[in-house]
Amino acid sequence: MPLRIPSLPYTTIQEGFWHPVTSTLNWCEEDYYATIYSAEIVNTLTNLPFMYLAYKGLRNCLNYGHDDVFLVSFVGCFLVAVGSFLFHSTLKCMWRLVDELSMIYTTCLMCYATFSHQRSVTFRSLLAVSLASLAIFITGYYHHLQDPSFHQTAYALLTAVVVFRSIFLMEYYLRPRRRHAATSPGLTSNGSVGPIRLPFDWTATERRDKAILHSMWMMVAYGLICFLGGFVIWTLDNHFCTTLRAWRRRIGLPWGIVLEGHGWWHLMTGIGAYCYVVWGIWLRHCLNGRHDEYRLEWPSMFYSLPQIVTSDAHSASNGVVKAA
Predict the structure, then answer these.
(1) CA distance 207 to 186
(2) Does the bond joining 20 to the residue before it have cis omega, within 30 degrees of 0?
(3) DSSP label at residue 253
(4) pLDDT (tens digit, 9 = 90+) per residue, 117-169?
(5) Tally of helices (H runs) and strands (E runs) in the chain
(6) Degrees to nearest 5, angle at CA 100 with 258 and 80
(7) 10-25, pLDDT tens digit by residue?
(8) Residue 67 near residue 284, CB atoms below 8 Å
């Protein structure tokens, strides 16, 4: 006799507390099968880890004096998670727009952080106006179009622009063989923005920068694997929804939760987004010539997540990955 894993059956779909559904999108998870107070319980609860990561990033920015633009970016990440939590709980159109448009706004903030560094006040002002105008256009057009593919395309393009720009800055200014005239961008002795002369100890400097680049590329790869892996799982969830729903009902609860692809998308993109902002923080400090003042703290990519701390705090901790 085959061994059957103990499980609970899925209940009959019932009318929920937030009825009726007003969103034009309804993902593969069945509605109101666990509680009348949450339409998609797994898709709702998988936003909680993202909220925690946004809080963790906020606390890190406040504790270690990272630039305000990254603090605001973590606030944006928190709003994305809250919007997604409320949308999947209620399946109301208003909260779907909050969920999806917050992703656009947060990416525009990161775009500003990437392109505004060490630029003139005039350039930064024009960039801010341009990005705000772009965000307003995407908001209005998406509200009119109500086509999720437009939002997904806009988000993917903005994210790609920011990632590739950040990679260019990282390689151009930190890779020793690409450094021009023995200088790199940073803070001058009087505190103004401008190039600073590198130390004459080229061996130590190159070793430090190569170690930093190696750790940064590890973080980039980790974040991309999470992002792309989550996207693949979500895509499979959409294409094979009927089959997956049948499998979930066959194996019952709680095991069917493992087959909720959109929930995995939340978990994996939350980690990827967090890693991306942390990467941006570290890159900004390095571009400011503060390589030795801040360190990456990441004990293991298997059971911890990275954060950027001051060198003093880094030295006081144990079992960390050193960047220099």
Answers:
(1) 19
(2) yes
(3) B
(4) 888 999 999 999 999 999 999 999 988 887 888 988 999 999 999 999 999 99
(5) 10, 4
(6) 70
(7) 887 778 888 888 888 8
(8) yes
